């Protein structure tokens, strides 16, 4: 599909979601521009470019400065905040966006961040403003931030995707454009195409290597030593996206292996290559050139992924960030670089998965970390495709492979009538990602603190739990389990929808996902055995009586959060193990003044 066709198809997708939300009285109806931003932010999270993003469109002025924001995301370690701001044309034809306009749009988000951090906005905002949580976060955590990344979301096409980083008050500001061209790459399952490194630019010369061509096989490979500063800069720019086929979450500096890496970097940087097992990388394209010394070198790698050595990569970045005395100029990292040759995308991805599977042994990485093809996910995808809602015309969609929902819409909805039929059958609100499933499942299992760690970390824990105790899900998965899972998701979504409404923001000022997670865990703990999930599946919604109970419990949980947080961000305290005990101990169950259809009577009643 060419870029113009994709632009037209994705615009139809946006208009379809707008129509879907307009027709649903329970859905909020933001602008077309905000719908576009929301869909793109979901795409970014799926691709590993950011953590789960929150939509919060706001425009204002402070003095002579214009301030604008469309959404935000916080990295797992809370050292980086991503701010999203839109430059939306809403045109039927593809529009070119000059670099100067990217900078001007990004400047509005920078102005928002600076004024928030300096405490100039909070008192001037309506308490129900959608940006209150973000303003408080920037004001409270500005000093701890290492990076501020501004991502300009546009339905136009840009020449530059990454602008030159700047420094502001001791932190790096990166500006990126997420344009329709990048979105096409992600929607066709190739976000790693964006990861390109030119050694001639970063080093001033090609990287020395031993290159082994192989005309008979589906790959070639090179052996090289990559400077530590290049590894650090790669991670700083691409973050977890660089580790897409590996474990994205940094396991921290306390583990024996990572602690040893940091110690070597600080005390014996010249011995790093001797002590470390190095990296295994795959790439879609490698360019060779002849160096001045006559040796062959790598001049460029495109479509790069680190499939083994993710913790080494992360440790180099975080250790040098946290210890400014570390000098990476003497650090060299051994690397085996595998250049993929096959034009068959399925075969190529299978090869990557197998390389990662068999190469990962340094840090006890389990096969569960490379999970898209695991039986659990394959079976869940099949169940979602085969299990129709009680009305017989709709179903839920499990996105086992990132971007597959958008691909399905683009492939099967080529005409307005086809698209309307598909969206009616599988609306976007029924799309579920792997991280979604982990969030809902582990919330109901009573692990809200784990869920609060964020999408990737929670997902990794969920997969580890499946390895340790396969009985937490039936084997094989069955339709009854699937229907009950969907019912649990419906309950979770009902809580989220209620507390996100504008009129609810007087009570629920932040931490919507965390409040919903803890409320669901509490309901599971207190009422789980009594809930008739199949009844909820049959209705595909909850009754007004049950909705009131959910509201009352969420209000109570929010109150416990406010008492415990003591001015801190809910997202911070939600990760602490002691909070779940506090919620269970302090919660006083509101009296139910009416019968709840979804609840079975207690024994003896």
Can you give a write-up of this model?
The chain is an alpha/beta fold and 605 residues long. Helix content is 45%, strand content 17%. It contains 23 helices and 18 strands. Strands 9, 10, 11, 12, 13, 14, 15 and 16 form an eight-stranded mixed sheet that branches. The chain has a six-stranded mixed sheet with strand order 1-2-3-5-8-7. A two-stranded parallel sheet has the order 4-6. The chain is globular and about 85 Å long.
Topology (SSEs and partners):
Elements: H1 3-23, H2 32-47, E1 54-62, E2 65-74, E3 80-87, E4 96-97, H3 99-117, H4 132-141, E5 147-154, E6 157-158, E7 166-168, E8 171-178, H5 180-187, E9 196-198, H6 199-202, E10 207-212, E11 219-227, H7 228-238, H8 256-267, H9 272-275, E12 279-283, E13 285-290, E14 296-302, E15 305-308, H10 310-322, E16 332-340, H11 345-359, H12 375-386, E17 397-399, H13 404-412, H14 416-425, E18 431-433, H15 434-444, H16 448-451, H17 455-468, H18 479-500, H19 512-527, H20 533-539, H21 544-565, H22 570-573, H23 577-586
Parallel strand pairs: 3-5, 4-6, 5-8, 12-16, 17-18
Antiparallel strand pairs: 1-2, 2-3, 7-8, 9-14, 10-11, 10-14, 11-16, 12-15, 13-14
Quickly give the structural class.
Answer: alpha/beta
Proportion of beta-strand residues: 15-25%
In helices, the fraction of residues equals 40-55%
Number of strands: 18
Number of helices: 23
Low-confidence stretches: 245-249, 361-370
N-to-C span: 62 Å
Largest sheet: 8 strands, mixed
Shape: globular
